[in-house]
Amino acid sequence: MENDVKEGGDRRNFLIKLTSVVGGAGVAAACVPFVASMNPTSDVLAKAETEVDLSGIPPGGVHTVAWQGKPVFVLHRTPEEIAAAEGTNGVIDPEPDAKRVKKPEWLVVIGVCTHMGCVPTKEGPGWTCHCHGSQYDDSGRVVRGPAPKNLAVPPYHFESDTKIIIGKA
Amino acid sequence: MSGPIINWIDKRFPLTSFVKHELTDYPTPRNLSYWWNFGFLAGIVLVLQVATGIFLAMHYKADATLAFDSIQHIMREVNYGWLLRYMHAVGASAFFFVIFVHMARTLYYGSFRAPRELLWWTGQGLLLMLMATAFMGYLLPWGQMSFWGATVITNLFKVTPFIGEQVVIWLRGDYSVGDDTLTRFFSLHYLFPFLIIGAVIVHLVALHTVKSSNPSGIDLKDKDNIPFHPYFTAKDLYGLGIFLIVYSVFVFFMPNSLIEPANNVPANPMMTPNHIVPEWYFLPFYAILRSVPNMFGGVVAMALSVMMFAFMPFLDRSRIPGGARYRPIYRLQFYLFLIDMLVLGYVGYKPPTNPSIVVVGQVATFCYFASFFVVPFVSKMEENWLIKRGLPAGIMELMEREKRDLEARKEEHRRRKGDRI
Questions:
Q1: Which CATH number fits domain B279-390: 1.10.3470, 3.90.75, 1.10.287, 2.60.40?
Q2: Which of B173, B270, B353 sits opposite A38 (nearest CB)?
Q3: Which residues of A have a catalytic role annotated?
Q4: Please, which pLDDT band fits residue A6 given cuts at 50, 70 and 90?
Q5: DSSP state of A160
Q6: What is the nearest CA distance from B348 to chain A, expressed in angstroms?
Q7: N or C: at which end does chain B have fewer Cβ atoms within 10 angstroms?
Q8: Which of B159, B165, B175 to mutate to test the interface with A (most CBs of A within 10 A)?
Q9: Mean pLDDT split into 10-residue runs, chain B, 421 residues
């Protein structure tokens, strides 16, 4: 008789533990749709590609276009700017200029400061971010912190000599 | 209270006994100064913010294409919309002002010490919730400052190890702050005040368990306590009158003095304003964020700077009651800390391009944390010095008794542990 109770107790404890685990897993699973609903929606994901006409950008000029809601700088570099960019590897996040461009006269970078996400302003050679004082050169490489990384290069390709598509390499 | 209706209720719900216990007969130290008004004032501002907020929400549109214009609609076309909005905007600043004074009083008089640690920590939680609510509310007008403030602050989550980028995208619901971000911030901005109300109830339950501290720092005997009503209801309402005069001056005569002009320009994701600053109540913490040259370090330092207050019950080792009132060195530390906060606020307001401002910010940030870290040592040395200099016999006796009680509790704990083995 005592044995029965004891075994019954073990079985009950086991069942309580099992039910708690299954119940906990159920609650966790029920949280998934709520958390997932905060991720980007399908129509946000659909704004994937942007076409840019380069013919209107004079040498030394920069155009800012929107891609996935973010600004992208398209800079038509002069021969002097190209020479200056190729002459250095950057300071904080070293990278050769050749790896950052598809054609030396066109620099395409995402215009979002890698520090806190502000949009840097074109000032003299390169860009300055007025939020926290980071500076970038004409290859979009960070030359003064606090930004930790170079301006990102988005995936893009030349459709023709005067047209690029941003969003697909 | 009496009367047939009250009687009928009292048989079913403890109305009279509750009011008696928590309000009319609630024992309150007779020596509370006006610095003890600010908890009550914070409660009133919370009510004002919820009331104005609910009516503003009847006219506001949480949609990136409509939000900015709906604020103009509230200001120009809604009956008394200008008043509701200015009350709400000024109310946010008033809330932080009142809370900062409330915290400063707790720090000055050492009210965070045993047995009021949980009271202090629930207050710390309330401060964090208040900051989150204010930050999300600031995005809603969808001006340039709103947009870039939200961009910078959501970007802070990029330092989350391994999944930083995904966390930022998840928080925003987009690759940059956008329509989805605005809508969810509105939803949460409406939710949080009700969580705050819940936490305030917890805060008050803790308060009514340990009762108010007082400027002497000594728990008063029953004969030195007086009922909360009418004495402190009257004192609190007098303080409320003064507060409302100042509040009204801001609401009616200088409502834009605390609103950044750049926020009257609609949000533009393609252009950052030349100088972005947070609201005044975030400036010292923002200065700390900027003062650390490394991004991860900066975010950690900023989070720590807000949380440092929670450690005070552990850091302050002095047993002298009454906080800064009877502790000259602690009082000096307190005022130096206030000055440091003001310096940090100034640095946070200035653009970071000036190198000397950066250095001042770094020194002030160092002083901010250092002033917490020296507390354990300085408080102990100060206590020894004060005892050597001579304390009133009553105070010595009180401290000896507290020490004996603590020893007895420790002994009891050890004995019980021994029994179990």
A1: 1.10.287
A2: B173
A3: 132
A4: low
A5: E
A6: 11
A7: C
A8: B175
A9: 86 92 90 95 97 96 95 94 96 97 96 93 97 96 94 90 91 91 96 97 95 89 88 95 97 92 91 87 94 88 95 92 90 96 94 85 96 94 91 86 86 79 56
- Give the gap in angstroms from C-alpha A44 to the nearest C-alpha of chain B: 7
Tokens describing residue A108: 């395409």
Q: State the ipTM, two decimals.
A: 0.72
Domain B28-257 and domain B279-390, same fold? Reply is no
Contact B215, B325 (CB under 8 A): yes
The alpha carbon of residue B313 and the mean position of all alpha carbons in its chain are separated, in whole angstroms, by 17
Residues of A within 8 A of B155 (CB-CB) are 115-117
Structure token pair of residue B149:
């403030």
pLDDT tens digit sequence for A70-124: 889 998 888 888 888 888 887 788 888 888 888 888 889 998 888 878 888 888 7
pLDDT of residue A146: 79
Any B CB within 8 A of A31 CB: no
Domain boundaries, chain B: 28-257, 279-390
Cβ contacts (< 8 Å) between B274 and chain A: which residues?
121, 130
> Under a CB-based contact definition with an 8 Å cutoff, are residues B103 and B64 in contact?
no
- CB of B198 within 8 Å of any CB in chain A? no
Nearest by CB to residue B295, choosing from A40, A115, A118, is A115
Q: Please indicate if any CB of chain B lies within 8 Å of the CB of A70.
A: yes
Q: Is B69 a catalytic residue?
A: no
As its CATH architecture, domain B28-257 has: Up-down Bundle (1.20)
Per-residue pLDDT tens digits for A51-66: 888 888 888 888 888 8
| DSSP, residue by residue, B309-351 | GGGHHHH-----TTGGGG-HHHHHHHHHHHHHHHHHHHHHHS-
Which residue of the set B61, B88, B189, B235 is catalytic? B235
Which residues 133-162 of chain A have a CB within 8 Å of chain B?
Answer: 133, 145-146, 148
In angstroms, the CA B241 to CA B246 distance is: 9
* Contact B167/A at CB under 8 A: no
Q: B136 with B189: CB under 8 angstroms?
A: yes
Query: Does the structure show a pLDDT above 60 at A2?
Result: no
Residues 6 or more apart whose CB falls under 8 angstroms from that of B81 comprise: B56, B59, B73, B74, B75
- Please give the structure tokens belonging to residue A156: 């893009």
Residues of chain A neighbouring B169 (CB-CB closer than 8 A): 39-40
